[in-house]
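subagent[fold] <- orchestrator: predict structure for attached chain, return tokens only, no commentary.
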Amino acid sequence: MKKNKKPELRAVRRSVATLLLGLGLTACAGPGGHPKDPLEPINRVTFRFNETADRYVMRPAAEVYDLAPLPVKVGVGNFFGNLADVWIGVNNLLQGKFAEGLSDGGRFLVNSTVGMLGVFDIATELGLDKHDEDLGQTLGRWGVGDGPYIVLPLLGSSNLRDTAGLIGDLNVDPVIGIDSPGPRNRVTALRFINRRSQLLGADATAEQASLDKYDYVRSFYIQYRQSQIYDGQPPRVKDPDDEAYMDEATPASPTRKENQE
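subagent[fold] -> orchestrator:
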């Protein structure tokens, strides 16, 4: 029944939908120098906001969390990874990767039982590899174009397709699905801090690798998502952020199926 729907989740859906509509209407308006980034002026403002929030809130929290004993951090990461395996498996099945999807289901069953709710990753020891899939990747696998590059508040790099996929991801997120606001907020914060702690040091690499951190992060995200969609074997394309283009051939479309296998 509709009265049982959580107002927070409905608000997130409305916010994301409004963002997508606004971006769809303005995607051609920005004169950004990168063809994938017509919204660059807006994105850079959001990027600076995210950098400030990270410097004064998220990174300090992650650094404190990083002081916890390694077994605790590993257990927390395993727990949240186990929760994600169900939706990862669904996306693998939707992409036609049935063996991987069944493996993800097996991982969840093994780790939820023998692994004590996922705290211990027994499935990996049994040869059931961990995968990383989401609805954005599934849409890309189906041939949906990525659209303009987007920097989301607090969440960081994305694109129009992945932002749309985020709506579906949020609808099935077991953490957001927790009924009580208090526990839900605490578990959400723990998951976020755990993820941020895993990236400590990566920001320093970005700072040192380029004079413009925004350009570096954008280029990395575009190439990383392309690689994820094609399971590590993406078609070779030119990247305007790279002075030594990856290839001089005409950029390939994500709908080219011969490169997916």
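orchestrator: received. Logging for downstream: Residues 207 and 226 are 23 Å apart (CA to CA). The chain has two domains: 2-59+135-259, 68-133.
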